[in-house]
Every structure is written in structure tokens, then in C-alpha cells.
């Protein structure tokens, strides 16, 4: 199984990362508040204030974000939070909290924007953001299994493929099932396009920070950069201070040889095949050459 030796390989390890925990609490607290209001005679007050209806966005712009924290009922909340709980932590561990939260909100905004195709239909729920997370997980760890009903193993890539097909077909239908297929499709598409864009998080973890605490420009090192820097010219020792230079050149040679091996592994088996040690080696390359 891809990533079997890494802490990112098991989505059901029940490790809850900080932003996943905060989002779980925020969504659950919002549902509890809506439940209490509904049973005190103020039914649907919260939904009317926070749900996103495209034609009303100019009058209520905050709903582009707040709609993600309002759910129709306990099952709607449960399924979304299960997706966040199982698939969110590996992504937050990989990207860091800031990038994870940014991705979550961007996927949710993409879901809201595609919903403008049906401008008078209100939408609520974190489904668009969760579908974006599912897409991201499948892009990083496509062969990891998910057990349907706890019994039948299905690779994540096939699970997400099935979800995409169902979502596209649902969005083309004219039914009124109450499922916001366009929002789901928007979350999937936004997650995919964002991770393919130059603004995507580093594929090997959070970017190193400068002394000021701000991220240095450029994000993570690309495969193209690594290929350029494994050329024979990059491995030549410097002639100054022979003893020290020889040791440095030997370290450089070893580091770049390791990069050669890791790049060959990525080409043959994909990023998901890397072990934790190999990820750390790539991070070491990033830290060492970021300023060059």
C-alpha cells in the first residue's frame, strides 16, 4: 500500500490535528446552536442569516463563508464531519495548519461560486470543502484503501472517481432532491485545479520560514528544480580549502545521489510511495538550496 511506512498512510489512525479539531468543534457548535434556536421558537433563524443564496450575496457577502458552517440536519453534519475527521488530518500534517485552512476555505468558496448557476437556490453545509479534501487526498494517496461499511476495501482514487461521476450526473439532472450537486462539483473541481496551480502548497510539507517568520517566496522546490540540480556540474567540489571542501563535496554528492534515487522512485511509483525518511531528505534539499 502506498505510504505504508509513513504517518500519512493511515487515514484512520484517529489523530486529530489542530485545525481539523477546530473545524469539527465549530461545525458541531453551530448545529447545536441551530437546534436550540429551533426548539425555542426561533426556527431557521440561523439558516436564514448564514445560508448562501447567490442572488443575495451582494447584500450578505459573509454568507460565502458562513454557509459552510450551517447544516440541514444531524446526518448532513455527521457525514461531512466524518469526511473531515478521516481525510483532513493527513493533509494538515503534510501542508501545515495555515495551508490546510486556506485550502479548506478555497474549496468551499469554489463550491459557492459554481452554485451561482442556480442563483435562487440557497446552499448550506461543508460538503464543497469536504469534497475538495477528498480530491486532495486522492491526488496524494490514490491507492490507499477506504473500507465501505467497514468491510469492502476500495482505493481512494476509485471512490473519488465514483463520487465525481455521481456528482456530474446529479448536477445535470433537474431533480429537486435537495442535494447541492453543483456545490459538490465546485469543491471537487476547485480542489483539483488549486493543487495543479502555482499557488498549491509544497508537496512535501510546510515551506521553511525566514527569520522574520514569513514564508520565503517560491513555495516548495519543484521536481524540475531538483532535476536541474542533480546535473554533473552541481556535483563538482570546490577547489578552496581542500580538506573542508572535500568533506562538503562528499556530503553534496551523497545528498544529490539520494535526490536521484528519490526522483526515480517518484517517476516510477508516484509521490505517495515515499517514506517519511525520504520526505525529510527532500525537505533537507529544500532548506539547503532555498536561498540559492
Description of the molecule:
- Mean pLDDT is 77; it is low at 1-13, 207-222 and 231-239.
- This protein is mainly α and 292 residues long.
- It has 2 domains: 18-196, Up-down Bundle (Rhomboid-like fold); 223-289, no CATH class.
- A two-stranded antiparallel ribbon has the order 1-2.
- Helices cover 57% and strands 3% of the residues.
- Strand 1 (145-148) and strand 2 form a beta hairpin.
Provide a quick synopsis of the model.
The chain folds into two domains: 18-196, Rhomboid-like (Rhomboid-like fold), CATH 1.20.1540; 223-289, no CATH class. It has eleven helices and two strands, in the order H-H-H-H-H-H-E-E-H-H-H-H-H.
Q: Segments where pLDDT lies below 50 for 5+ residues? A: 1-13, 207-222, 231-239
Instruction: Write out the strand line-up for the largest beta sheet, numbering strands in chain order.
Output: 1-2
Derived from helix and strand composition plus strand pairing, the structural class reads: mainly alpha
Amount of beta strand: under 5%
What is the distance, rounded to the nearest whole angstrom, between the alpha carbons of the first and last residues?
36 Å
Largest sheet: 2 strands, antiparallel
List the helices and strands and how they pair.
Layout: H1 18-38, H2 45-50, H3 63-66, H4 74-95, H5 97-114, H6 127-140, E1 145-148, E2 152-155, H7 156-172, H8 181-196, H9 223-228, H10 242-269, H11 276-289
Antiparallel strand pairs: 1-2
Amino acid at each position: 500500500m502506498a505510504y505504508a511506512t509513513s504517518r500519512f498512510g493511515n487515514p484512520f489512525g484517529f489523530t486529530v490535528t489542530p485545525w481539523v479539531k477546530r473545524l469539527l468543534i465549530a461545525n458541531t457548535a453551530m448545529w447545536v446552536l441551530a437546534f436550540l434556536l429551533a426548539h425555542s421558537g426561533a426556527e431557521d433563524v440561523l439558516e436564514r442569516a448564514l445560508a448562501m443564496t447567490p442572488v443575495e450575496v451582494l447584500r450578505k457577502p459573509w454568507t460565502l463563508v458562513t454557509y459552510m458552517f450551517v447544516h440541514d440536519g444531524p446526518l448532513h453534519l455527521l457525514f461531512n464531519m466524518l469526511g473531515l475527521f478521516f481525510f483532513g488530518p493527513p493533509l494538515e500534517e503534510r501542508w501545515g495548519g495555515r495551508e490546510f485552512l486556506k485550502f479548506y476555505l478555497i474549496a468551499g468558496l469554489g463550491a459557492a461560486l459554481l452554485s451561482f448557476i442556480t442563483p435562487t437556490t440557497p446552499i448550506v453545509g461543508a460538503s464543497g470543502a469536504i469534497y475538495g479534501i477528498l480530491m486532495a487526498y486522492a491526488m496524494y494517496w490514490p491507492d490507499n484503501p477506504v473500507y465501505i461499511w467497514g468491510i469492502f476495501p476500495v482505493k481512494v482514487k476509485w471512490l473519488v472517481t465514483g463520487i465525481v461521476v455521481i456528482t456530474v450526473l446529479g448536477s445535470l439532472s433537474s431533480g429537486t432532491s435537495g442535494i447541492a450537486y453543483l456545490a459538490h462539483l465546485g469543491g471537487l473541481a476547485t480542489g483539483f485545479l488549486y493543487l495543479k496551480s502555482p499557488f498549491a502548497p509544497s508537496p512535501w510539507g510546510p515551506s521553511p520560514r525566514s527569520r522574520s517568520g514569513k514564508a520565503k517566496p517560491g513555495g516548495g522546490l519543484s521536481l524540475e528544480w531538483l532535476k536541474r540540480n542533480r546535473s554533473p556540474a552541481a556535483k563538482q567540489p570546490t577547489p578552496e580549502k581542500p580538506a573542508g571542501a572535500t568533506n562538503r563535496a562528499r556530503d553534496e554528492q551523497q545528498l544529490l545521489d539520494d535526490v536521484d534515487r528519490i526522483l526515480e522512485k517518484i517517476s516510477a511509483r508516484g509521490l505517495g510511495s515515499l517514506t517519511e525518511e525520504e520526505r525529510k531528505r527532500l525537505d533537507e534539499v529544500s532548506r539547503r538550496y532555498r536561498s540559492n
